[in-house]
């Protein structure tokens, strides 16, 4: 299983991913699900991936090959992020179809493309196995792939377009920790990439192992404050609100 989240803000982008590709009693393996594309100086592109590992690896290899061979259509000669999303969608569909024809396994995968092309706004695109895509919005400034349900509430509560890059990164790590708490198939190392808009240079990139002091501090502080908040909730027996019949029946 996988969990990846991308956040699109006025200040730039934050992308976070786990690295667990298989989990069992005696079989845990890891593989980075975040790929920072090698691009020309006028653009910055990152791909997050979830789903069949063979498919996602093949997508990345095709992207690299098209750049290396100078294909007429590659990530370095497209003028819009939407064009890059279309291109990745076509590669994804073709590879899924090829793998499905071989039979024996589910080849589906989902991608998140994040980045900026000079003269355009930074943005995020979620690319489905069918090749179509959606973008983030003012109402929902983030996109998730993989095991998304456990980490969604904290994103909904705290993220807005005006959120700072650092706060968004911390929020994403809390979202990741909540997911790891509820699903053992999502796990470290955890990668966080912070891109400031219009920079087009190497972004801040962090990688946290399971015992990293900062990751542990985030987990402990979040758990501590959640516990404090829970214990400060108004008690039913001292509430001034009269319980209705349904509550009395409980």
UniProtKB/TrEMBL annotation:
Gene3D superfamilies the UniProt entry points to: Glutamine Phosphoribosylpyrophosphate, subunit 1, domain 1
Gene Ontology biological process terms in this record: proteolysis
Keyword list, A-Z: Hydrolase, Protease, Proteasome
Organism annotation: Thiothrix lacustris
Protein name: Proteasome-type protease
Domain of life of the native organism: Bacteria
GO molecular function: peptidase activity
A GO cellular component entry from the record: proteasome complex
InterPro entries referenced in this protein's UniProt entry, alphabetically: Ntn_hydrolases_N, Proteasome_sua/b, UCP009120_prtse
